[in-house]
Amino acid sequence: MAGLSRRFLQNPCFLLYSMQRRLVTKVASDQEAKMDKKSKRMESRKKIFKDIRKGYFYDFHEFRKRGGKRFFAFSEPSELKDSQLFPALKARTLSQKEVDLQQEFPGHVTLVLLWIKAYGESMCDKYRLPFVKHFHGEPLAQYYEISALDGFFFKAFKGVIEKNLRKERPADRHDNYLFFSGNLKPIKKKIMENEIVGHAYLVDRNGLIRWKAHANPAELEINHMLDCSQLLLKEAKRTLDSEEKVPWNSR
After folding, report:
1. What pLDDT is stored for residue 13 in this prediction?
2. What's the CA gap between 122 and 175, in Å, rounded?
3. Residues with Cβ < 8 Å from 181, sequence gap 6 or more?
4. Average pLDDT in the 55-63 region?
5. What is the pTM of this model?
């Protein structure tokens, strides 16, 4: 300490120089940390945009090449152990009723039709119309259409889009037509094959996806859908009958 004092007395600029050097070092270190943070942020953004472009262009290429179809639907429902739950989804119908799909599945066989792009809705109609015609009057069979909104631009105008849908779609579809503007990422990741096309899912009484198809259906796929629906309805009715036979005092 005494040596430092003598050095300061001999050279008054010593302390000032030392402090200045520390300050420059700290500023340089802070700038380096900021640059590193900025660089990581830019890399993260690039990765996000790359994933977006890759997903969209891959889907578009597949759509042009094969109509967006990656596989043909199976002829039988999947086994329970191989089936996944339909993702949680809450939306509002065009008749302005809030619907939690997970609450609608129990006790029913549900055809869920899902799309993002306008192309998808026309594809989904090709599944919906035969299903409605075949199971008209069947109380355990039901369907829901889901028009999903994706992208910041479209979500900014969701009120206008919903209003237009309400005007353009027939009133008899409003109760089953859901308009979804929530977080679509987990749904796309878990169950969607191609974002451009429409998707059809048969969901059983437990909320499990037991059959699925996408893009324009082949005639055979429509037959598979109807056959699988019949099998799932038999399952639902057997369960319902067995529950009704159980005495109340043993429940």
Report:
1. 54
2. 19
3. 91, 148, 149, 155, 158
4. 54
5. 0.74
